[in-house]
Each structure stands twice: as C-alpha cells, then as structure tokens.
C-alpha cells in the first residue's frame, strides 16, 4: 500500500509538546496541583509561549487540565467511569447512588419519553433533576421521568421542598421489583441549561446516556443523563476499575 499524503505531514510542535506535558502530569504532578505559570513552563520545555498555549488548550479539551478563574491551571482528576453495561443494577436513589437530588416537578415529558413510558399525551409525570459531582466538580446532570403509577404512594401535593419531594419519589421506586434496564449512548452538544449546570460553554461536547428501567413488564422510569465528555469515560461491567496511564519517558520538546 502506498504512503498517503496525510502520513507525510510532520507532527505539529504543539502536539508533540502536549504528549510531553501529559507524561509530566503523570509523573511530576498530583491531582489538583497548580501548574507553574506560562513563562516558567515555556522555559522548562524550551518552547515559545504560543506553542505552549496550544498544547495546554488541547490538554484542557482532553480533560487532563482545568483552568479555574482566580486559581490558575490545575491537574484534573481522573475521568469518572460511566457504566453503560446492561448488567443488573439498582434503582436511582439507592443507598450507593452518588447522585444528589436537586429538584422535583410534575410536568409533561418529551414526546419520545412519553412513548417509552406508555403514558398518555397529556399525562404529567414526576420529573426529578439530579446532579453528579466528583472532586467538587459537577460532571453530569440528569432528568428522571417517573409516571405516577410507578410511585402511587407519593402525593403530588404538600409543601415540602423540591429536593425533599425528589427523595420521596426515589424512595417509592425502591418498593418496585427491578426487572432490568437498557441503555443508549450518543455524543451531543451541551444545551444552554446543561452547560450552566455543568460549568461548560454551550455547545461543549457531552455524552447523553438514556436509560430505561423495567418493572413488572413495563417501563417504570426513563433517565436522561448528560455527562461532560472531558471528565467521563464509558465503561462496560468489570472494566470500570481499569485505569490507563501514560508511561513517563524523559523527552524534551524541541
């Protein structure tokens, strides 16, 4: 097979520098540590500051670095695993569930969700909004759509706060037998409301995971979770504990 024109294009200097800095992050820095300023880093790696900025921007896009206003550039925590296997799990809100309920409402679900739930077109459902954070950073936002038939003991009235009502709905779910679930994953762009919750700019890449939970032959819950693509990675069952790190090599960017 002949050599393509693309294969003859030399690697950009900033791309090589990105690899070198990535190896230094693994060997010389810890999670949350603040990097030296641009002048010091440029001198350390023997490059122009413009080249350094390009490399740092790419590492930020890949989730290796975080730029925090008033703090500087810090080493990002490892990506959080998002289990997309169909192995038996538990209802949302189980004791081991790290998601935090934020709000509750009775609302009409999107048409595609209503079809999955088998609800009538004008039937409102319990809508629970939750947030997932790691190392103090929001990484995912979720909307749970739960028809009243799944939690018949939960009243829609009362004066409790939205978060308290959300927890009551989730407790009601645990009274149902869980038959299983299925999941679909797609790459998307953050909408304005998701971007605000996840501390990203609108249009930032996200992973949208839609999960249906089944009980007694019907769909009892539909979850639509939006994950920051720069902080999460997909896992499948037992692969969730796998961590991949770059081997450190002593190289200098030219």
How would you explain this protein's 3D organization?
With 254 residues, the chain is of the alpha+beta class. The chain has two domains: 6-75, Winged helix-like DNA-binding domain superfamily/Winged helix DNA-binding domain (Arc Repressor Mutant, subunit A), CATH 1.10.10; 80-240, Chorismate lyase-like (Chorismate lyase, 3-Layer(aba) Sandwich), CATH 3.40.1410. The chain has six helices and ten strands, in the order αααββββαββαβαβββ. It has helices at 13-28, 38-45, 49-61, 111-117, 162-173, 192-198; strands spanning 65-68, 72-75, 80-83, 100-107, 125-134, 137-146, 180-189, 205-215, 218-228, 232-235. The strands form three sheets. A six-stranded antiparallel β-sheet has the order 4-5-6-9-8-7. Strands 1-2 form a two-stranded antiparallel ribbon. α1 (13-28) crosses α3 (49-61) and α2 crosses α3. It is elongated and about 65 Å long.
Please tag this protein with its features.
2 domains, two-stranded antiparallel ribbon, alpha+beta, Arc Repressor Mutant, subunit A, 254 residues, 6 helices
């Amino acid at each position: 097979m002949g050599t393509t024109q693309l294969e003859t294009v030399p690697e950009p200097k900033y791309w090589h520098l990105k690899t070198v800095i990535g190896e230094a992050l693994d060997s010389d820095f810890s999670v949350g540590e603040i990097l030296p300023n641009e002048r010091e880093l440029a001198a350390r790696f023997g490059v122009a500051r413009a080249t350094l900025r390009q490399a740092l921007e790419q590492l930020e896009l890949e989730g290796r670095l975080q730029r925090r206003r008033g703090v500087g550039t810090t080493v990002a925590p490892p990506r959080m695993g998002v289990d997309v296997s169909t192995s038996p799990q538990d209802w949302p809100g189980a004791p081991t569930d790290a998601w935090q309920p934020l709000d509750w409402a009775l609302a009409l679900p999107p048409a595609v969700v209503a079809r999955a739930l088998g609800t009538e077109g004008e039937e409102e459902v319990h809508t629970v909004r939750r947030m997932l954070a790691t190392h103090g950073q929001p990484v995912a936002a979720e909307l749970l759509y739960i028809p009243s038939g799944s939690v018949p003991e939960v009243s829609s009235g009362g004066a409790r706060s939205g978060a308290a009502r959300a927890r009551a709905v989730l407790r009601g779910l645990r009274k149902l037998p869980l038959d299983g679930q299925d999941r679909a994953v797609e790459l998307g762009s953050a909408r304005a409301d998701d971007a605000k919750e996840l501390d990203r700019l609108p249009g930032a890449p996200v992973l949208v995971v839609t999960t249906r939970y089944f009980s007694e032959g019907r769909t009892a819950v539909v979850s639509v979770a939006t994950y920051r693509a720069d902080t999460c990675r997909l896992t499948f069952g037992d692969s969730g504990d796998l961590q991949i790190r770059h081997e450190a090599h002593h190289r200098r960017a030219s």
